[in-house]
Design a protein that fits this description.
This protein is of the alpha/beta class. It is built from eight helices and seven strands; from the N terminus they run E-H-E-H-E-H-E-H-E-H-E-H-H-E-H. Helix 4 links the parallel strand 4 and strand 5. The termini are far apart. The chain binds nicotinamide-adenine-dinucleotide (NAD). Nicotinamide-adenine-dinucleotide (NAD) binds next to helix 1.
């Protein structure tokens, strides 16, 4: 989608971090942006600050893991801006950590926010984009965790799911004039590790999501891992730069939008491990 000015975007998780960076970068080139987020105070602040730059933006509070809430937010966006050309499925949370800490409610929560909201986003917005016939683009935020694999199974499963979904539908939707990109950031300076602030009331007290630091009391390995992550995220890439990369990715219809090359060797190692499986079966001797 080459001409972004005057197009309309719907960005989830837009009150903070990468979502706010994307909303800002799009607004700066004249896109009208609806910022959707579960956190009202942060959302109001983000919208107010963007409006001061003369941007055509508005905000809507929605828990995008609930299909009904996403449908309602979509309807209000159409009411406000007429149509939507760009969907950014970005809202996300961190997961409960090591597999032994995961709970049934935690799985429901993380799958709901990180994966089902993306699937529902495609299902709700694709027919609307087809209907207005002006073309569209869908960017979903996965992670490097979507192309390599590490501990924190809930996060990994959902991010691999977002990558698989995006790759899988790109050909089909491309034929309908709808581009598909998947954003796989490395370490970005955001509030992601404080994701426990976003536990919806239906899961309160039923998950192991805790603010950063509270692991220390009961699990040394998880604490060490989190401490490393916190340091890397504090020193991470500027989310506004990520927003610019996403804007370019939409303009150039790029499938994979990466933010840096730090994890490329780990990707190569994963591919080499998978190749070992092929090599083994290729050279397998018959047992008899
Ligand atoms: N920060 C990083 O290093 C990094 C790296 C790779 C991928 N990501 C991904 O980037 C995306 C954005 O995260 P971020 O790093 O900007 O973190 P962030 O916490 O700063 O922003 C996430 C936003 O999503 C919102 N949100 C959470 N649950 C929601 C829900 N149910 N409905 C609506 N909004 C909800 C939060 O309120 C917040 O505003 C996530 O999908 C995350 O997994 C982040």
């Amino acid at each position: 989608m080459k001409e972004l000015a005057n197009k309309v975007a719907f960005v989830t998780g837009a009150a903070s971090g990468i979502g706010l960076g994307i909303a800002t970068a799009l607004a700066q080139v004249g896109v009208k942006v609806m910022l959707a987020d579960i956190e009202k105070a942060a959302l109001d602040k983000a919208v107010e600050s963007l409006k001061r730059t003369n941007a055509a933006v508005d905000g809507i509070v929605a828990d995008v893991s609930l299909r009904g809430a996403l449908e309602e937010a979509t309807a209000k966006t159409i009411e406000r801006f007429g149509k939507v050309h760009i969907l950014v499925n970005n809202a996300g949370i961190g997961g409960e950590g090591l597999f032994e800490h995961t709970t049934p409610s935690g799985w429901d929560w993380v799958l709901g926010v990180n994966l089902m909201s993306v699937i529902n986003g495609f299902q709700i917005f694709v027919p609307l984009m087809r209907e207005h016939g002006e073309g569209g683009h869908i960017v979903s935020t996965a992670s490097m965790a979507g192309v390599i694999t590490a501990p924190n199974a809930q996060y990994q499963v959902t991010k691999h799911g977002v990558v698989a979904l995006s790759e899988s539908v790109r050909g089909e939707l491309g034929q309908q004039g709808i581009g598909v990109s998947v954003l796989c950031p490395g370490f970005i300076r955001t509030n992601i590790l404080d994701f426990a602030r976003n536990v919806p009331s239906r899961y309160q007290g039923k998950t192991n999501a805790r603010p950063f630091g509270q692991w220390q009391a009961n699990d040394a390995v998880a604490a060490e891992r989190l401490s490393f992550m916190q340091k890397r995220i504090n020193e991470g890439i500027d989310p506004l730069y990520v927003g610019d990369l996403v804007r370019e990715g939409i303009e150039d219809d790029v499938l994979y939008i990466f933010t840096d090359t730090e994890f490329e060797p780990l990707f190569d190692a994963r591919v080499a491990e998978i190749k070992k499986g092929f090599d083994r079966i290729r050279s397998r001797k018959p047992r008899h």
